[in-house]
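Structure first, sequence second, as always.
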C-alpha cells in the first residue's frame, strides 16, 4: 500500500493519493476508501482499478488535520494501509484504523 501527499501552495489543502496494491487484494473486484472524510460511507468513495491491478484514488483533504480510514474490499473485507502515518483504535471494535495526517 502506498500513501503519497502533495501540499498546495495556493490553499490549505493536501492532495493525498491512496494506493492499494494488487498483492493486498489480488482477487478484488471493487475497493472503496472509507473514513472520516466521507462519514464512513461504504460506497461513496470508490477507487479506480489500474491496469497493474492496483487500486488508486486521490483526495483533497484539509491540511493540518488527521483522518482515520480503511479500505473496504468487495464490500466485505476491511484492510488497513500498511504505510499509514499512524493507527488509532476503532471505537467499539477490536481493530485499528489507519490514520493520515494531511
Amino acid at each position: 500500500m502506498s500513501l503519497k501527499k502533495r501540499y498546495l501552495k495556493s490553499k490549505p489543502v493536501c492532495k493525498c493519493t491512496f494506493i492499494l496494491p494488487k498483492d493486498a487484494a489480488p482477487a478484488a473486484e471493487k475497493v472503496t476508501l472509507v473514513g472520516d472524510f466521507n462519514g464512513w460511507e461504504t460506497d461513496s468513495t470508490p477507487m479506480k482499478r489500474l491496469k497493474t491491478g492496483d487500486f488508486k484514488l486521490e483526495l483533497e483533504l484539509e491540511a493540518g488535520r488527521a483522518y482515520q480510514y480503511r479500505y473496504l474490499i468487495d464490500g466485505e473485507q476491511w484492510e488497513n494501509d500498511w504505510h499509514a502515518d499512524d493507527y488509532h483504535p476503532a471505537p467499539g471494535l477490536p481493530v485499528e484504523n489507519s490514520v493520515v495526517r494531511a
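Margin note: The chain has a mean pLDDT of 94.
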